[in-house]
Amino acid sequence: MRYLVVVLIGVVGALFWQLNEVREEAERRVVRAVSHHLNNSLSVLLNRRHLDPNAREEIVDEQLLRCVWAVQTILPALNVGLPELRFSISNGIPSNRVDTARY
Fold first, then answer.
1. Measured distance CA(82)–CA(97) in Å, rounded
2. 82 within a domain of the structure (yes/no)
3. Which of 29, 43, 77, 86 falls between 20 and 30 A from 96, CA-CA?
4. pTM
């Protein structure tokens, strides 16, 4: 009986560890996606003096909108809860995928 309790505690501990790993990986994916979009947009904004003067304002506006889009669309995916984690584990795919093909 004692060994059964020890094994049960080990299994429960391993499940909690696995859930924590999945949650941390989901958070890292979201942070990488936001970082990617913000870095690309900000690099264009920092180097705007090298852009064509006729299209500069439009390009800067697009990049600012891209920053806003990344913060409003991708960043909320950091709120990964238990139902999303269960779906992610059972299907073997990330549950917080965001359509980044837009930009």
1. 16
2. yes
3. 43
4. 0.60
Given a contact cutoff of 8 angstroms between Cβ atoms, the answer to whether 79 and 31 are in contact is no
> Looking at this protein, which amino acid is placed at residue 53?
P
**How many domains, the chain?**
1
Convert the pLDDT of each residue in 14-63 to its tens digit: 999 999 999 888 888 888 988 999 999 999 999 999 999 999 999 999 99
pLDDT digits (tens, 9 = 90+) for 54-85: 999 999 999 999 999 988 888 887 775 545 54
Both tokens of 44, joined, read: 């264009």
Report which of 95, 101, 99, 76 is spatially closest to residue 26, judged by C-alpha positions: 95
Q: Is residue 74 part of a domain?
A: yes
Q: Which domain holds residue 23?
A: 2-95
- Both tokens of 94, joined, read 């990330």
Is 8 within the bounds of a domain?
yes
For residues 97 and 84, the answer to whether their CB atoms sit within 8 Å is no
